[in-house]
Amino acid sequence: MNSFAKITAQGSYVPEQIMDNHDFENIVDTSDEWIQQRTGIVERRITKEDEYTSDISYKAVLDLQEKYQVDLSDVDMIVNATLTADYKTPSVASYVQAKLELENAGAIDINAACAGFTYGLNIANGLITSGQNKKVLVIGAETLSKITDYKDRGTCILFGDGAGAFLVEYSEDETSFVASDAGSDGKKGHNLYCSELSEAMFDEALENPGFIVQNGRGVYKWAVGNVPRIIEQTLNKANYTKEDLDWFVPHSANARMIESICDKSGIARDKALKSLEYYGNTSSATIPLAIDLAVKENKIKKGDLVLLVGFGGGLAYASTLIKWTL
Ligand code: UT7
């Protein structure tokens, strides 16, 4: 008997409060024009002070449940991708499990920064096809505003809060997962980090305890140099070419960067689905948010071949090539 993993529902949640580019003009030396030209971001969502990653993760799952009327009572694993957990422990996934009252579900968080959601999907595929689990919730959720230094114009204009969730289920006859790839360039990790308050692995971290520090140029160069290779490797694994792709969903960090990746890879720019314009860079949530928007706009259709590529802090990456099954 075959054992496949199939995506059966997707949902999202973003906080109500909007912070647009003009709001930043009052905080740091910047302009709407600079932000739009250099990043493509127009606005982003910000959580309330007492609203945490587990809260928005839970709401993304409720959205998924309401839209697709799926039964979640027998979910047996929750994988929460995040770098902004409410606490070091318990995990965000454990809080989500409690909020959903899923007594028989396992719960783990994974931290692969902006590659977290695609890692999570590949883990769900592995858990299901190996026979360990039958129903897995994969959530990408961040409250980056809580670890953003609003005095640093180079980073504060980039980040936002939001959550996206997929339900992945066992199937005897249909798979969503076609091919995947993953890797990391840990020697370049210093280009993007967030120290604990008491830790300082990198010298500069002492000056920025608890905030995201990024060498934007460094990450940009690495991504444009490496993501095209990751795209090709993933497609090759399944004997597909870029022409076969219906949609490309890269991590939504920067519109110019995505255009460069598309041009270098020979993928038409209008095949790239993004979430950054209205949500900014939401790390592990950018990919499910971009897909959620595309589903709402009736862009993605059942049977479409979609390549997801998450990349960022680590510097880690994970790709997954899927057949859209909704
Ligand atoms: O999500 C994880 C992965 N992260 C990424 O993929 C991020 C990739 N990198 C980027 O998106 C871009 O590098 C940034 C958007 C972060 C920065 O854009 P950039 O075009 O690389 O600008 P830059 O850092 O090279 O800075 C250019 C200039 C500098 O001024 P000088 O030295 O030329 O006088 C900056 O000080 O722009 C200045 N600048 C700003 N000016 C106005 C930096 N931030 C701002 C700002 N407003 N907010």
UniProtKB/TrEMBL annotation:
Keywords (A to Z) from UniProt: Acyltransferase, Cytoplasm, Fatty acid biosynthesis, Fatty acid metabolism, Lipid biosynthesis, Lipid metabolism, Membrane, Multifunctional enzyme, Transferase, Transmembrane, Transmembrane helix
Active site: C114, H251, N281
Listed transmembrane segments: 305-324
Pathway listed: Lipid metabolism; fatty acid biosynthesis
Every Beta-ketoacyl-[acyl-carrier-protein] synthase III C-terminal domain range: 235-324
Gene Ontology BP terms: fatty acid biosynthetic process; secondary metabolite biosynthetic process
EC number from the UniProt entry: 2.3.1.180
Top-level taxon of the source organism: Bacteria
Domain notes for this protein: The last Arg residue of the ACP-binding site is essential for the weak association between ACP/AcpP and FabH.
Protein name (record): Beta-ketoacyl-[acyl-carrier-protein] synthase III
Organism for this UniProt entry: Staphylococcus shinii
Gene name for this UniProt entry: fabH
